Amino acid sequence: MINTVAWFEIATDDPQGAEKFYGELFGWSFAADEAAAQGGMDYRLIGYPGAEGPAGGVYATGGATPGHAVFSVVVADTAAACDRAEALGGEVTFKLLDNPNGPDFAYIRDVSGNLFGVFTPPRPAGA
Fold first, then answer.
1. What keywords does the record list, in alphabetical order (predicted)?
2. pLDDT string in tens for the chain (127-residue length)
């Protein structure tokens, strides 16, 4: 559903450590995101026991960005959400639009400096 929290991400330079920690703590499972891998990104999908599909991911930063844990909101239009956030006093810190390997997404800091994400699911082929 649009404008709801639909994903979370844990970014770390130690993805194996994160998998071990969260896997043992919560019983989460992890699987490589093949589409992200095709684009050169190490991203691992997080699944919950009994869940139908993944609900989050572990992003292996390789030390290129600080570690973080954020929630992400599904939006109808990532670019429009970024524009609106900036108009409201937020700051877009990263934006990837027309992503050939997955959803359009962005990281935004709210007016208090808190980081969160927004994303628009990829359109089905031919849509």
1. Lyase
2. 899 999 999 999 999 999 999 999 889 999 999 999 998 999 999 998 888 888 899 999 999 888 889 999 999 999 999 999 999 999 999 999 998 888 999 999 999 899 999 999 987 766 5
The model's pTM? 0.77
| Contact status, residue 15 vs residue 58, Cβ threshold 8 Å | yes
DSSP assignment string, 75-101 = -S-HHHHHHHHHHTT-EEEEEE-S-TT
CA distance 11 to 59: 5
End-to-end CA distance of the chain: 19
For the chain, give every domain's residue range: 12-52
Collapse the DSSP code of 23 into the 3-class scheme (helix H, G, I; strand E, B; otherwise coil) and give the result.
helix
Bridging pattern class, strands 56-60 and 43-47: antiparallel
